[in-house]
Amino acid sequence: MPDPTHSAESQTMTNTSGDVPAIEFRDVTKRFGDNVVLDGLNFSVPQGQRITLIGPSGSGKTTILRLLMTLEELSGGLILIDGDPYTHEYKGEKWVAVPEKRRRVVRNRVGMVFQQFNLFPNMTVLENIIESPVHVLGKSKAEAIADAERLLEKVGMSEKRDFNTNQLSGGQQQRVAIARALAMDPEILLLDEVTSALDPEIVADVLDVLREIAETTDITMLLVTHEMQFAREVSDRVLMFDKGQIVEEADPETMFTNPSHERTKEFLKAVL
Ligand code: ADP
């Protein structure tokens, strides 16, 4: 359960003000058994910003994204999306879980692209992209197809529209996965090491697609990546994690050229 030290007033933010962060973690704790992966984590992502999480393997970066997709349950603390309680809310003088129906509405504002693509098997490219807009958002099939075709154009995959996804290369599957996430019109896009499973020569194609999305939309993005040059180009801010804690937070220029924390220097020396 959340730490009830926060005032009830702090839970009444609305999403009408531009000052409300797109994402806010308050005192978030996540344990797997005895393993405390996140320990009282606080951070927020302003609307429209691109934030990159860096840090050694096992430092809790993917867990943060999975909590935001409600693929994991919190052990403590709160997550708010656009100021709306996402996990727990203060009601009748006690903390209660946000009802699943309302949580789903908020979750639909969040899209995620995974390292291993996670496309629906035995479906065509087009079917993958229209599935959720039709079945979750209730779009008409014609509208969903028109949107999907526009997105396939954007990610350079129009010619593969009717291919089964198992006929595609890794890079092509990842471009379809990006189009599928965008088809849900997310306000927030989570990108979890989306190029790590790809052959080096196609990494650049996928990064080009993401760069264009960053340049042409105002979607809030939270990225976990080992592509430091890409992180440097597209991020507004970089957070360095170690053992579930933020050890340093800076603009990309400072983080990559003049980090102040020893742990960051050590990490960057190993990966750059
Ligand atoms: P990162 O993305 O920084 O590599 P993760 O968030 O994937 O780190 O993992 C953080 C820690 O949580 C690791 O110690 C990992 O073993 C543990 N962990 C992640 N997912 C699970 C799970 N489903 N069950 C048990 N432990 C997990």
TrEMBL record:
InterPro entries: AAA+_ATPase, ABC_ATPase_HisP-typ, ABC_transporter-like_ATP-bd, ABC_transporter-like_CS, Ectoine_EhuA, MetN_ABC_transporter-like, P-loop_NTPase. Residues 23-268 form the ABC transporter domain. Gene3D superfamilies: P-loop containing nucleotide triphosphate hydrolases. PROSITE patterns: ABC_TRANSPORTER_1, ABC_TRANSPORTER_2. It comes from the Bacteria. Keywords: Amino-acid transport, ATP-binding, Cell membrane, Membrane, Nucleotide-binding, Transport. It holds the Pfam family ABC_tran. GO terms for molecular function: ATP binding. Residues 7-18 have a biased composition (Polar residues). It is found in: Cell membrane. It is a peripheral membrane protein. Residues 1-20 are annotated as: Disordered. Belongs to the ABC transporter superfamily. This is Ectoine/hydroxyectoine ABC transporter ATP-binding protein EhuA. It comes from Isoptericola chiayiensis. The lineage of its organism: Bacteria, Bacillati, Actinomycetota, Actinomycetes, Micrococcales. The gene is ehuA.
